Amino acid sequence: MIKKPWGSETILECNGKYVLKKIEMKEGHRCSLQYHEKKKETVYVLEGTIIVILNGKDIMMVPGDALTIEPLDIHRMEAINYSVYLEVSTPELDDVVRIEDDYERI
Question: Which of 57, 76, 95, 96 has the smallest CB count inside 10 Å?
Fold first, then answer.
């Protein structure tokens, strides 16, 4: 488990083809506004309600909802309440360009 200021992420599988993470996000917290140059990811909500800001549009997601984020899409996830979701992506773990961050990370 990797602790984050907004919650935590656990890498369940990492190989040359894909990465699967379980992400837990605390109520009222959000990740960086960011994009990826190569990484493509799909989010699947297990518990709670999140808002995904995707290219300036707010998308509310509840358990059972899935959304794919393409490379260069500007996005951020925000937890309305305690939330758990899966993220499956291509294997570029370090491909994160932060635009804005509540926790002043670079």
Answer: 57
